[in-house]
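User: For my dataset I need records formatted as: sequence, then structure tokens, nothing else. Please produce one.
Assistant:
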Amino acid sequence: MSRFEIQSFLDFAPHYFDYMTTAFQEKRPTVLAKIVGVFRIGFKNSHTTSASKMDILIMENLFYGRNISQKFDLKGSIRNRLATATGKEHEDLVLLDENLLNSTIFYLYYFFKQSRSEILFKNAKYVSYLQTSSGM
């Protein structure tokens, strides 16, 4: 994590954990991935005496035990948000916002009524959470 990402996390973390605690206690589904931990790893080379450190954030693996055909990294922007498949295996390709918009021209995405209601509810809660925590 960069210095900016660490500071952003530290500013945002109390709101995130309050939200996740409430969601867990009230047994509400959420669209946010769960953070498992944040760690600072330091190491020193005994031969050169050079030292280095790295900050990492570990999140749940949403893909475990699932057959995923496409992955999207959505940021809510279309500026410079188009991925190309050059030199990447299909299973390693992470698509972006413009890829999703372009795919809706050719493919329809169907949801069961219950799934659609849950998605809309989760997104409304997420937007409310972002607004109250100054994430928007």
